[in-house]
Design goal:
Blueprint: H1 2-23, E1 35-38, E2 44-46, E3 54-60, H2 65-83, E4 88-95, H3 99-112, E5 117-121, E6 138-142, E7 148-153, H4 160-171, H5 183-186
Parallel strand pairs: 3-4, 4-5
Antiparallel strand pairs: 1-2, 3-6, 6-7
């Protein structure tokens, strides 16, 4: 009977993983929604403002131990990219926590990890299309043209090297054509 139980567990886990992946409405190649939440200062973080950069979006929460371990790594990547003038922006989105929790954690994290762009997704509406409703951590990587390159749901430390390699691959892609200018903005 133990073999049957293990097999059933494996099948159940596979079904859960597939269900989470299927629930992620956004997939590689798609153009994601523009909003990435708001900063502690109330500024809106938009993907349009990051056009031309490889964007790494990490959905996290204070109760997610792996998420908290990952933050210094992401901040280190951002710091290195900034020093080397590489087109990379890491955006860490606090997923479904109260404003007070976001405020306290953002203030603490900003002191320790000043290069990290932190934003807030109170109701989970921003993370849900990427699969965050099925569990975090979730990491989304965008090409420099703003389209989705990869989405990783529920990953761990063993995947870190391959994820860094994916980011390096994205950084090696050619710069995109200039963003189209809206006619409404072009008219004076």
């Amino acid at each position: 009977m133990p073999k049957l139980s293990r097999a059933a567990l494996v099948i159940l886990l596979c079904c859960c993983f597939c269900a989470n992946a299927a629930n992620a409405g956004i997939k590689p190649g798609d153009t994601p929604p523009d909003s990435l939440g708001t900063t502690l200062d109330g500024q809106t973080v938009s993907l349009a403002s990051l056009y031309g950069n490889v964007v790494v979006i990490s959905f996290w929460a204070t109760w997610c131990h792996y998420c908290m371990k990952e933050m210094p790594v992401l901040a280190g990547l951002q710091s290195l990219a900034t020093q080397r003038h590489l087109p990379l922006q890491v955006v860490s989105v606090d997923y479904r926590e109260s404003h007070e929790t976001f405020r306290r954690s953002a203030q603490l994290l900003k002191k320790r990890l000043p290069n990290l762009l932190l934003s807030w997704d109170r109701r989970g509406a921003i993370g849900a299309p990427y699969g965050a409703a099925g569990g975090i951590p979730v990491m989304v990587m965008l090409h420099r043209d703003g389209t989705v390159a990869n989405i990783h749901i529920g990953y761990g430390e063993k995947m870190l090297d391959s994820m860094v390699a994916e980011i390096n691959g994205l950084l090696n892609e050619p710069a995109p054509a200039p963003a189209p200018v809206s006619k409404a903005l072009a008219v004076r």
